Amino acid sequence: xxxxxxxxxxxxxxxxxxxxxxxxxxxxxxxxxxxxxxxxxxxxxxxxxxxxxxxxxxxxxxxxxxxxxxxxxxxxxxxxxxxxxxxxxxxxxxxxxxxxxxxxxxxxxxxxxxxxxxxxxxxxxxxxxxxxxxxxxxxxxxxxxxxxxxxxxxxxxxxxxxxxxxxxxxxxxxxxxxxxxxxxxxxxxxxxxxxxxxxxxxxxxxxxxxxxxxxxxxxxxxxxxxxxxxxxxxxxxxxxxxxxxxxxxx
Length: 250
Description:
This protein is an alpha/beta fold. The chain has one domain (about 1-250): Rossmann fold (3-Layer(aba) Sandwich). Helices cover about 40% and strands about 20% of the residues. The protein is built from eight helices and twelve strands. It has a seven-stranded parallel beta sheet with strand order 2-1-3-4-5-9-12, with helices on both faces. It has a three-stranded mixed beta sheet with strand order 6-7-11. Helix 3 links the parallel strand 3 (about 55) and strand 4 (about 90-95). Helix 1 packs across helix 6 (about 160-175) and helix 5 (about 135-140) packs across helix 7.
């Protein structure tokens, strides 16, 4: 069985490609650097020839509201049209938990992407993931005002990228759900507490302040805005195990 992984050289893509290849599958890691561009359409026909499953892990280079919406709509239309022409039997896409419950430009763009997938006629599975543990520093950085990090005390359930890739590969090997699968980390705590724990563990002196008025990624969030509301597949790697792995790798 042939798999094409769009964004196959990125954080999740490279791990997913490795898992599938270890299983003996034919896998094409597609990216603009390899001559496959979902925005221009370059290389899509050749890349998708003979593919049964396409995994879309592409991400926008810009997070500006208009640019990110244009990216996901253009990329989605081009990719899905090429898949229809190639007879692809399963479209797998990585999305974000609670994008329809949190209002910011990036989440609105992901909602638009999901709508294109659902209306494409191609059998699909959408995987909605919580935030990655690897992005805890980034969360702190975008919420920092000098040496103070202001974050809302809302529930947070981050997941390790290794667990995300394992779930993506598992879903890609299974029949299409024609629906949404949610994944999250094994631990749930307040966002400000997770970030404070991370900064302390890596020796960062910045202070984390719980601020109910603070936003997240440019939008307002409520207590359950960033976590699954129902059943979710939980990863196996908790914060401490992930921290040990990441520090060892560094």
